[in-house]
Amino acid sequence: MLVIKAGGGKGLDTEAVVADVADLVKQGQQVVLVHGGSHETNVISEQLGHPPRFVTSVSGHSSRYTDRETLEIFVMVTAGKINKLLVERLQQLGVNAVGLSGIDGRLLEGNRKDHLRIVEDGKRKILRGEYSGVIEQVNVSLLTLLLGAGYMPVVAPNAISYESEALNVDGDRAAAAIAAALKAETLLILTNVPGVLRDVNDENSLITQIPQAQAEDVLDRYAEGRMKRKVLGAAEALRDGVGQVIIADGRVASPVSQALSGRGTVIK
Amino acid sequence: MLVIKAGGGKGLDTEAVVADVADLVKQGQQVVLVHGGSHETNVISEQLGHPPRFVTSVSGHSSRYTDRETLEIFVMVTAGKINKLLVERLQQLGVNAVGLSGIDGRLLEGNRKDHLRIVEDGKRKILRGEYSGVIEQVNVSLLTLLLGAGYMPVVAPNAISYESEALNVDGDRAAAAIAAALKAETLLILTNVPGVLRDVNDENSLITQIPQAQAEDVLDRYAEGRMKRKVLGAAEALRDGVGQVIIADGRVASPVSQALSGRGTVIK
User: Fold this and answer.
1) CATH assignment of A2-267?
2) Residue B59's pLDDT is what?
C-alpha cells in the first residue's frame, strides 16, 4: 500500500504525478492519492471577493483564518475542482479513481479548532468562528471497501468534526493519518523542494536519510514552516506503523518512481 | 429503493428535504439522493467573471453553453460545494452519506455532445467545445457497494464520456438513469411547482395521475421546458423498470413523505 500526497502548493507537476501513479496502479500497486488545494483556494477566494486572511498565531506562525465562508470555498475548490479534475485525468489514464473528501462517510474525523489565538497590532486576541481541525480518526473501512473493489481513492483535505461540521485540514497531515490507518508500506509526500534540506536556501543540502529516532531532532534543527508539518506528520505516521516516509521532489519527471527508488529524504 | 432528485433550481426547501430523507433512512429505507446545481453555478460563474451563456437551439429551446471553463465551474460548484454541504448536513442528521459525482468510478457514463446547433441573429451556427452529454451507462456496482455497506450515496449531476471527459448532465435525467439502473420502486423528482400542471400558470391545475402509457401524450400536451425533461426522464425510467415516478412539490414541509403519500403527479 502506497499513500501519496501531491499538490496544493505551486510548482508541482501534477501531470507527471498522475502519469506515474497510473503506471504503478497498472502494475498492481494499491495507491491512495491525497491532494491539497491552498493555493487554488486563495486564487478563487480572491476572485469571489472573499480574499484569504492570514493571521499570526501567538507562537509566531502564519496561518489561514478559515471562517465559514472560507471553509465553503475551500471545500468547493478542493473536493470539487481539484479532486474531480484529478479523477478525470486518472480515468483518462485508465485508472478507476473515486474522489472523496474527508466529510464523505466520515472518512477523516477530528476535533474542530473553533478559534485561533492570534497576535494583531501587538495585541493578543482570540479569533472565533474558525473551521479547521486535526484528524483523529480515519474510516479505514470505506477506503478498503473501495480499494477491494478495484477503485483508487483520491482524497481532498477536508475532515468532519465530531459535531459533523466540515473542516479544513492540512493535506500532509491527512495523508499521514491515512497512511497510518492503512499501515501503508510507504507514505510519499511530494513537494516543491528536493526533500528536507539542511539549509532551506540551498537545494543541494538535501538530507537523504533520517532514522526514525532522529526525526524529532531533525524537525527541531532544520525544518521550517510547511516542511515542519511534513516531518511532524512523517514522525506520527512512522510511530503508527507506516514502513517509511519519503519526502521528495514533485517537480521532476516520474516523481513517484524516482522517489521510490531512493531520491528525496527517506525517513524510517 | 428510493431515488430522489432534489435541488438545483430556486425555491426548493433543501433543509426540509434532507430532514425528511434522514427520517426515511433511519426507518431502513435505502435512498440515493441526486441533486442539481444550475442556479448556483450561474451565480458563481458571474462572480468569477465567466457569466453563463445561454443559446437558442435550432429546435427553439434555450440551453446553457458549457465550454471547458464553464464545465470546470459546474463541476466545482455541484460536486464540491453543493454535494459536500449536503453530505455535511446529512451527517449532522445521523445519515452516513457519501458524495459522488458521475465522474467518480465512471458512475455515470455517456456520449459527449461536443457541439451545439444554434440560431443566433437569425442564422444557424455550430458552436463547438461543448461539454455536456446524455447518460447511457450507470455503474450500479459502485452504488450497491456503498449502499450495502450502509452508506447513502449523494450524486452530483456530472458524467464522464467514453473518452473520459467530465460532462455536465441534467440532474433529472441523471436521477432517472440511476433509478432505472437500480430498478428502484420509486423515483421522486422534487421541483418548485406542485407537479405536472395542465396550465403552467395555474398551480391548481395539477394532474395527479398519469398512466405510463399516456406519459408521452401528456408530455406533448402539457409539459414545457424543464418539466418536459422531467416527464421524459420519467417515461424512460418506467420503461426501464422503475415502479413509479412521482413529480412533486419540494417547497412544502416534509416534501418527501408528502409525495410518497400521494401528493404531486404520480406516473405509473
Assistant:
1) 3.40.1160.10
2) 84
